Every structure is written in structure tokens, then in C-alpha cells.
């Protein structure tokens, strides 16, 4: 017979088992309810969402990069264009072992260590499903070899358009160049419109008008099969190509100026005085912009970095030099206008100038002196003593105000980046920048374009054009016309212009007559230019010191380091009666402006007027 305790335990165990079964059934019931709710959520409520997600695995919407606009000179000659090329790409999501694949490509001779390094650097900017470029500019042999022996999963050949500059290094400081987009660039431009853009303008017109040249992205739908291969492509929204730009630059004049300055450091700027269009803007030495398009090689980069002449430096707009005697016409005009002198005022030049109670002599470039000279003779013969005396009588404040009218000390506003302002000194300027008082002798030096005063070749061209125009000062421009895809060429808006206020219109004639005598006068510093000249020319020579000499020191170029020798300058305009063009030229450390700069200016202007004669320069 079982004991009462045994019966009691069986009943307890049955009770516990029954309780556990009920809990298990409840848990299974709740789990089933949750599962049904989840299935309902997936299949009914969020059916469309997950359907699109599923389709997204085989279809993607990708941007279409637009074709970049071309750049032409004023006559329609190509300066920058696009060329079909081929590149090697790798898609990470299709490649099981990226490192191994890259090594296999290297062993097959398609890429090298530099390409691998660039790939890893660029890969961070892409998604896994993107075709990431490994190597650009594959030649036909490389493409054929790859296509006939393609054993690299996830590696493909893509066609693309890349920038080319058919004139090589010519006009590089105007056109500029494009290069690979950086993080800094991405922060500047519209992310949506530049989503798959690889290259952007870095300098010159390419940078200034980047957005207009770039165009607008399109959209395409790409369909893949289960193996990731593209089976269909549909254009949803076509890309809009960038605008074509026509510059005011004349390529023939550019190349002539570059040839004349070959082997020299310098700049030539030619400007249409009637509207501010820049016909020539040359800085030498020059360099090949094609080097930068797909990433500059170490060899070419080191070559540029080791050159002391700094080819990348745009001397036309960034180079700041003492303008020397080229500002004497503007100083003379200021003196006439402020009635410090008249057209008949004469100054005796013994070869030097002395301030009262000052021991130092301020030497004239001509040791024997010029004798008695008036405004016309002082400009034509570039008499320093006349302008020392005029500057002293005017004082720095009046001198500053007179030169300020010609935009010295300020940027011209030309439509390429990187322009420098130069310096137009004054008492206030010196106090702020040097924390020193202004000295009377410093006024004399400014009067002949030396001392603290600096300007760019472009500023000199703008000021000279204003002289030719008798006070109409233009903002210089490089963009002449634009052309949207499929549209006619539209003239671009010109820069602003102002009229320099001069009370006595005859003062312009007095100054221009002096510049005319520079070329045609028997003692004019550029009188050699008038031989066989087929157009009339007014000009001003200049020789700017790189460092100052004491009164008793003698300047002997041959005994100085080349970069300590004087700069050679020339400014002018032609024809005199109905001016069309103004020119400014500076050659670093070349010496005399009359013997070195003036003849080169004549040859550049000859190209312009020869083309005018043949009606080839609209």
C-alpha cells in the first residue's frame, strides 16, 4: 500500500506539469500571433517598400555626367576640348579579393604601384557598387589586350571624355586646366550636380567659369542580372552639356608674344581700348596643362617644383613690379590737372635732383642731364629730374589721388582668379603697413614709379588704355561670347567702365603728345620703333630698379646677379588718332625698356595690324 505522502507528490507533479503545458501553449499562441503580425506587416502593409528594395538590388538610378563645354579663342580656334578615352575600373561589390585582383593586374602589366596607391586613395570617395577608376588614358593596345584576356572579375574598361589642350602650353595662364576633384572642391560645388564628376577647373577660365562649363547632370536607370552584369540602361533625364566659351584672346597674338618671351621671365598684355577686351595675356615661362588632367606625374611635378622661374605664377595678373617711368604720363596729367604745372612749365635737368638742406642726390638716368625740358620733352625723353621736381611740388597726397584715378593699388576685376592689387603708397598706407612716417624723399621716388609703388602688367595696360581713351577706364574682360548646347552664340556682358574726371580736356592732348614724341621725336627713348611703322604709335619706355643705389654708386649690369638687374618695360597704344589697342610689357631683369621691351611690343602690335589689314581679327 502506497503511503499518503507518495499520493500527495503525484498530484503535485501533475499540477506542475499541467501548469507548464498551459504556459507553453500560451507562449506558442503569442509567438504565432507575433509571426502572423510580422507576415502581415511584410506582405500587406510594407509590400511596396520591400518590393522597391528588392528591385533596387537589380536596378539603380545613377547620374550621367554632362559633357564639358569647349573653350575657343575669338576666331573660333580651339583652346580646350574633350577627347574620348578609356579607363580601367574596379567595382568592389563584384570583386571578392580587391588586393589580390590589383596585384594580378599589376603582374599582367596593366597597372603599377602608383596606380594601386591612387586607387586606394580615391576608393574612399565611392560606394561599393561604383566603378572606381584604377588607370586613365589607356591606349588602344592596352584596351585590346585587356578585352581579349579578361580574367578579372569586377574589372572593366569604361569609355569617358577627358580634357585636352591641343595648343599644349600656349595660353595656359588664360585657359588654366582641370584636374581631379578634391574634398575641398566637393565642399564648394553642388553635391547633387557634381555627384560623379571627376574633374573640375583649377586655374584660369576653367576655374572662373567652372559651373557654366560643367553643365547639368542627367539620370539613368541601370538594370543588373543576378551576376551583377548590366543588362539594360534607360535614360530617365538626359544630361545638359556645358556651355561653349569664346574668349577675347587672339591665339596668333598669344603665340607670337610667347615666342618673343621664350627663355625670359615676363608678361605681355594687349587690350582693346574700345571695350576692355583682352586680346593677349601672356606670362612666361609657361607649362603644359595636359600634365594635370589625369594627375601629374612625379617627374613633371618635380620639374615644376624645382624651377626657380615658377612657371605656374601668372605674372600678367599676379606679378607686382615697380612700374618705373611708364607712369610718368599719369603723373604729368595729375600735375597739369591740379595746376601744379602748365604745358609751358620748364625744369632744368643737370643729371640729378637735390632737395633743400638734403645731402643725398636723386640721380637722373642720363648722367649729363636733359637741360631745360617741358612736359612733352620730359615724357618723350623720360627725364627723371622733371618728375622728381613735379612730385615734390605736388606732395604724396596729390600724387596718390592723381594715380588713384587710373585704378593703381586696386584689382582691375578681370574674369580669372588670382589677381593681385598692387600698391599705391600714401602717408596712411605707410603708417598702417610700416608704422613709420612718410618722408619727403619717398615722394620723389614714387614720382618715377619706384619705391613702395607696385603694379601688375594688366594694371599698366588698363591705365594706358584709359590714357588712349582720354579718361574712359574699362574693366578688362576675357569672356567674349557664350554658346549653350544647340543655341546660337550670344555676346557676353562687358565689364563696367568709368570716366576719369578731368577738368581741362587739353591736358590729355599734352600728355598724349609727349607719348607720341617718345616714338617720333628726335630724342624720344623709343624713336627706333618708328622705322617702317605702318600705323601710328604712342608709347612710354620704362626701366625699373630691383634695388636702390646710393648717389655715388654706379649701375653695371654685368657685375650684378641676373635677378638683381633692372626690369625692362614698355607701354603704348595705337593708332594715335583713333586708338584701338593698348599694350603693356615687362621683362624681368632684362635691362633697358627702350632696347629690350619696346622692340618686342612693336612685333606683337605688328601681328594685330597685319590681321586688321587682312580682316581676320573681328
Describe what this molecule looks like in 3D.
- This protein is α+β, with helices and mostly antiparallel strands and 618 residues long.
- The chain folds into 3 domains: 4-56; 60-172 and 216-243, Penicillin-binding protein 2a (Domain 2), CATH 3.90.1310.10; 251-284 and 317-613, DD-peptidase/beta-lactamase superfamily (Beta-lactamase).
- It is built from 20 helices and 23 strands.
- Strands 2, 3, 4, 5, 10, 18 and 19 form a 7-stranded mixed beta sheet that branches. Strands 12-11-23-22-21 form a 5-stranded antiparallel beta sheet.
- Strand 14 (352-353) and strand 15 form a beta hairpin.
- The chain is elongated.
- The mean pLDDT is 88.
Instruction: Report the total helices.
Output: 20
Corresponding CATH architecture of the largest domain: 3-Layer(aba) Sandwich
Oligomeric state of the chains?
single chain
Per CATH, the superfamily of the largest domain is DD-peptidase/beta-lactamase superfamily
How many beta-strand runs?
23
CATH fold field value of the largest domain: Beta-lactamase
